[in-house]
Specification:
Elements lengths: L18 H15 L5 E9 L2 E10 L2 E8 L2 H15 L6 H4 L14 H18 L3 E7 L9 E7 L4 E7 L2 H19 L7
């Protein structure tokens, strides 16, 4: 019989620094353990003069969604609470360290990524007023530049632009760059782009 006080224990891996990184790790885990089609989708859209967020996690035949959240951080936190309520995702304590939970509102994104998202949403909302939507999709695919896809649909579906990147920041920047001609065409007053 072994003495439990002398049994070796491996230290747990560290928790991801940012909530978004935890989500990336979680979706990657779901892809590896359950289904190759694991996808995290974020949608920003206007309603009654404010920007709302929807977040969804899907894999196999399962989808969990939260809607009408004020703030991308709130949507990501609430989505994990819903997923955790209905599904046991992680099979080990070591894997569970990557859960995207208990992050402060200021700890979901690094400053540069948050600035990229905020700028994209802010300019889009200003230019297209109440007729726009932004989609951000994360899939842990083998080709890094295709992992995050960003799409803008606006002006009664006559404006559609997209961008991709290995990171959320990269996809938002690419979409912003690709949408700049549309912003310039539809803006009512000059903006500093």
């Amino acid at each position: 019989m072994s003495d439990p006080t002398t049994m070796p224990r491996r230290p747990l891996p560290s928790r991801p620094e940012w909530g978004w990184t935890a989500w990336e790790a979680t979706v990657g885990y779901i892809k590896d353990e359950y289904s190759a089609d694991a996808t995290l989708t974020l949608r920003a859209y206007p309603k009654h003069g404010i920007t709302l967020w929807q977040a969804a996690l899907s894999w196999s035949q399962i989808e969990e969604t939260v809607t009408e959240r004020i703030g991308i951080e709130v949507s990501l936190g609430d989505l994990w609470q819903q997923v955790a309520r209905y599904h046991r995702i992680f099979k080990t304590l070591e894997a569970a360290v990557r859960r995207p939970e208990f992050y402060e509102d200021t700890a979901w994104f690094d400053a540069v990524t948050l600035e990229s998202i905020s700028r994209l949403v802010g300019v889009t909302a200003t230019v297209f007023d109440g007729d726009w939507e932004l989609l951000l999709l994360y899939r842990p695919v083998d080709v890094p530049v295709q992992r995050v896809q960003a799409r803008l649909v606006a002006h009664q579906n006559s404006v559609t632009c997209g961008g991709m990147g290995a990171t959320l920041r990269g996809a938002c920047r690419t979409l912003f760059h690709n949408a700049t001609p549309e912003y310039k065409q539809y803006m009512k007053k000059p903006l500093e782009l």
